[in-house]
Input
Amino acid sequence: MTGPARSTTRATLWWLRLGLVAGSVLVLATALVTLLQARASITEVRERTAPAVLEVSLAKEALVAAHGAAVAAFEHGQARLTGPSEQYEDQIARASQQLAQVAEHNAAGEPGSQTLRLIEGLLPAYNSFIGQADAHFRQDAGGPLAASNLQSASDLLTAGENGILARLDTLAAAERAALDEQLATAWLDPAITLLWAMPLLALLGGLWWTQRFLARTFRRAVNPALLAATAVLVLLGAATAFLLGVQSAARDSGTALERTVDTVSATTAAGAGQAQRTLAQVLVAQCGGAGPTACGDTVTAFAAAAPAAQTVPAAASAGVGEAVLLGPGLTAPGWTGVLGWGIPVLAVGAGLLVVAGLQPRLDEYRFRETRGGSRS
Output
């Protein structure tokens, strides 16, 4: 009777050792995959998608500011001396720089690249119309040719479907869709990534059961090695739980970025409307009419289409957007790098402690069985 009982206990110890070590490996795999995938998702958002979303809005802001500066220069007659103005040149250069950065960070795939190429192709044409308007304004002190070029530039920029600003809106929508998709990924969803906790809790339960089994079988209240393994796993779980805060902060930062972009867009829309109203006045003055109807149907329709004046919201500067990008939600904390090697060390350590705690009991039973066999 003693032999079979001892063999059964020894088999139980052997299976417990195997199961707890396998559980440690599973905890290592799930925690490490969760960490690496969450960190990769945040890195993708931080280094590509979020900058692309911000840069598209800033490119549109710069183009509208350039257009407004050029129209203002023609309205006040400054174009005779300084051309479309130094501010126009600066903002056009800024828009080109922002578009180049969008091309570098584009997260909207090939459709986004195609839209970007169209915009980059239209921008020189817009700049050419402004340059021709400037040349005619200098030569003729105004007149219908300058007015025609100004209107052509405005149409190229603001046309409802195929204008530069409309295409920028299309590109912005695609970049934001990519951002929303990445922020909604399962690896940034705390409810999904809590799955790593299930094997951890199961392993902790297995350690607790093993402690009770050893206490009943060997009359020892606590196995120090298994107790240490439990403490190590609790530490691993607490460290990995910090990922929940990182994931939540990343989603909050994405929402804050979208609010910033919405503010920039509202400011840009108000600026575009103001430029169109000013341009309508310039066109009337350039064609020599007493009012829009004296300048022909085209100018009349253009003036009628100018949006009503509206309150311009406080502009969100590029610095504000960059602060969002560099905020805690989209910047990997330094301790996530520590987790990268800390998780394997803790999980492997727990497995080794399990072996260290159970192997002496297995050796003890092997010794008892050997002694029992030699006596018989």
